[in-house]
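pasting for the record
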Amino acid sequence: MSDTPRAGTGLPTLVPVIAVSMLNRLARERLEAAFPLCWVAGEVSNLSYAASGHVYFSLKDAAAQVRCVMFRSRTQLLGWRLENGQHIEARVLVTLYEARGDFQLNVEAARRAGVGNLYEKFIRLKEGLEREGLFASTAKRPLPLFPRRVGIVTSLQAAALRDVLSTLGRRAAQVSIVVYPTLVQGEGAAAQIADTIRVAGERMECEVLIVCRGGGSMEDLWAFNEEVVARAIRACPLPVISGIGHETDFTIADFAADQRAPTPTAAAELAAPEQAVLLARLAARQLALQRSMEQYLNQRGQQIDWLTRRLQHPAQYLAAHRDGLRRLQHQLAAGVLQTSSLARHALASLGHRLLLVRPDAARHAGRIEVLAQRLRGGWQHTVQGQSADLTRLAASLAHLNPHAVLTRGYCIVTSDQGQIVRESKALAASQTITAFFQSGHVEATVLAVFDDHGAALASPAIASTARPD
């Protein structure tokens, strides 16, 4: 701690003292937190390749410069060599080298100046063609398993052509090769590549087509990033293998091709199977077929031996069957005799049982006669009783017959509505009534209505419903 005067008081204030390493660490953390990964453009100077594989250099412009380091793991992925005087664009992490307190940039990736615009153009074209379906996996054509002729679209001066020819000559000497020369770099190369692919497809001389060239910068490979080349590959009736650049290089042609190879050599390996491998596979299958046939023949020979042991002379076969038939005949005769004997015994037993249960006809006939007499007596008694009941009911019904009352001088009076009149107050003056006698009936009109004492009655409710005169 150090003593410094407190402002306005003259009293000392305790201020923390930190070490240089702590200061540098805090400064580095603040820098890395404040600056995310970004792209920085400048000219390479003071370039130095260390034995460890790390690369140290400065990036400068007209007004300033900054120290940079690119570690070995990142340098190996660069694909090209840094040189003094190059103008590059670097993707960097702003930091501080704590041991020396140097402000520096840790380079994660680098590209030549201007490549950024090419990369953006590459991305836009790739996304557009992908949306169009030009790279769809369903449109990819399978490669022939055993092609007899392979076409190569590349430059006659390209090292890639020598690699492909040497690989095919070593692996598949039986395959014929047709070379379609074209420019692979420079102005007009893309159009010439597309025309060459179209010509190869029209001639149909080959069964598979290789489009290849060696490695290079993005500008060197740009002819294979043109839309016209991608569309020519998809329009070609032959399956196309692309072998452009190194393993880390990707072009639009790679996405459009039916099969991408990381290098031209790998493209040749994909185009035709290795003759030695095919011969070895053929020999292995021949050996397997031979072993299978030998095993099959051995099994069939063993089966023939087994069948031979089972084979008998026809005379022996007939004699064995004759003995069997004779034995069956004896068994049949014995069985018939035994069955007949058992049937006779069963029939005798059933006859004896039938005799025991046979009914006594004479005794049952007498019983039937007695029952018949009882039936006749009961029937007559029932008929007499029913006749007496019928006579009694008829007499009772005759007493209830209204016509019997009419024979004694009475009559039945009904209203104009057909209802029987039982008392005088049910009628009204001027109402029509009907009187039924023993013989015939009359209709009359009520002149007056009286009660039991001879007093006149009035019946307005009934009178209001009477029919008019």
